[in-house]
Design a protein that fits this description.
Triger factor/SurA peptide-binding fold; four-stranded antiparallel beta sheet; 21 strands; 4 domains; extended; alpha+beta; 631 residues
Length: 631
Amino acid sequence: MLEAIRKHAQGWLAKVILGLIAVTFALFGIDSYMSGDRNGGLVAEVGDVGISRDELTREIQAQTDRMREALGPAFDPAVAETADFRKQVLDSLIERKALLQDAQKLKILAPDAYIAAVLAQIPAFQQDGKFSQQRYEAVLRQNGRTPAAFENELRQGFMLEVVTSPVALAAFPSNASLTQIARLVAQQREIAWTDLPASAVAAQVKVAPADVEREYAANKAAFTEPEQIRAEYLVLDMAAVAAGITVSDQAVADYYAANAAKFGQPEQRSASHILIGVDKNADAATRAKAKAKASELLQILQKTPERFAELARAESQDQGSAAQGGSLGSFGRGMMVKPFEDAVFGMRPNEIRGPVESDFGYHIIRLDGIETAKIAPLAEVRAAVVEELRKQQAQKAFADMAENFSNLVYENATSLQPAASATKLSVQQSGWMSAKTAPAPFNNATLSAALFGGESIKSKQNTEAIEVQPGTLVAARVIEHRPARLRPLAEVSAAIESDLRAKQSAKLLAEKAETTIKALAKGEEPGLAWSAFQVVGRQPSAELDAASLKAVFRVKADKLPAYTGFARPDGSYRIVRVSRVLDAAAPDPMLMASIGSGVVQAQQRADMKAMIALITAGQKVKIQPNAIEGR
């Protein structure tokens, strides 16, 4: 049990929460997931709870930010503006609410000890290597959070994990399926190919001016340039503020002296235990029986301490550590429940102590080793100290500058220069952009909506100072505007004609290739020049990309030679002849293991999707007709 708490505390949830603390604290409290908006403005209702438009907007922004961070330059802001994306986000909120209500119905609750163990793992909440309640509250306060809301996130994260984990753990593939898949994956095929060039049908391609005109008339939206603007803007960034702060040698030395323990590893202790479990609410007689059992084991160990691992495997009711002879590994203060921790940190190496009572029962504890605290010298951590001091000073300076910045932007509505002069920033100018192709920082939904709003375009006044990400404020104003326009036919006719020619050529070439393949299948050989034979697997190459290989391995090989074909990016069409199929003698164990992992993950996703759909179907879900309109 105790080991299970430590496992969860060091698992994915703790890492996720740490990520939330370290990056942005951007996600809103899950308490809002459960309470919804009882004052109206609901876009959907799930059972007894609702989803407000503000809640949906915040989650759309949060998921957009996560995609931007994950994809980097490959991120396309237009994706987050689509109705499909908004619908996916709304569906995920509905499913989450349904799962949480199901967990509540099943009375799944996170123990206080679990919450304490998770909080103790988050470095942002530690002081001198230990969890600090004061620092915990300060960090949350700085990020506009409350302990109640944050702990509620942890509790409900635990609820979601418990309610979904049985499905995730139940997936397993059959050995026969894995073997069959492995044989197919390892299969090779002997092929040769011939290419039909686009020039083979060039004489048949005919595009008349009337064809171009029809295409233009039928697809005017495709030839319409969206509304565009150019803007000037100011960026007030905490990172830039921090970079401009000079930290004195004395300040570095003073901070290091006061916080030296932060720049090293606190004392760690390794211990083993035998747990005789008993519920903390059990009656006195039951608890006394458990304690007596623990005392009996202690007496045995005092006489024969070398039997500790043997007795742990046989008697301990903490299954996670019992299999390891009772070993819990190394841990620091704040990582175990208090009675257990107090005992461990008061023991000598190889000492056996007990019974120690906790909410989980009675423990017999052996201290296996002590790793003393290590403090890094100032020279090694100087850069980190300077960064921390800059960050602290920047937070205060940024707060003061942000207020002044916001006021100046508002008070001088037709110019950004007063705010620029006061904050020593330079007014920057953007290129032409549309709402869907706006680069950073204009791809922020709030800033984009403000800039492309009719009033901003008409008045060309400053937007308010908008936080596009934590620690970054942007104010902007439109300086030029181009309304949406339909490009004239003369401007796009050449491109339309080229596109029509390419499409017609591809169609004619595919028809010619199909006729050729039918002739080959009948045994006819219409004077084609074939490449040399090659044996290929499923790994793409310069000559055969993934799509080409998919076509090669999809062709039926029960009668050889077999033929298939596919269009190529250069406009030609490749006909492939499969002459032999080479099966692997025996499946590769490493390949089997890799496939097994993939199959399990696919089963888990499918099972999870089915379970979530079933639980959601059991709730009364009502979605407003305009739920996904706007941002």
